[in-house]
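Batch manifest, entry 17 of 40.
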Amino acid sequence: MFGRNMKSHVGGSYQRTSILSLCRAIKVFFYSLNILLTECSSGHRIAQVCVVFQIPNNKIEAVFRSPDIRPPSHLAYIEWFTPIPARPEPKHHMYKVSRSILNGRRNVAIIPVNSIICSIHLFPRFRPIFPREWNSFTVLEECHTFYINPFADMHSYLTFV
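Output type: structure tokens
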């Protein structure tokens, strides 16, 4: 499905500003609830894909200033979750993650699509009283903490158990 060879990611406000300013010239595909396991320099991370896009050939020099750098053909604008803990929660053996926040904002990055490994299923962390405004369309925005479901499929089980 996706490649596993790329281990680096590009993040930060410079890339975010540059790419978002080019949106008029870029073909984009919007994803609402894609939670993915990615490879990055620090190991596996969980991220939500917001947009998958290509940089048009006539705009590559504006984003990648060095002629020696050839960008990947498809990139993903993502929002990170916190790093996966070293140990799962003792009661249910699931790993707890939350939105990664940097300087009061969601921590974002632009990564090559081929660094995405697979999709991941997250359970919201429920409180004693279930919020009525939560549904499958709003829970990622309304809930702050999630558990990685290691039982969703064989890949998740082999990765997290």
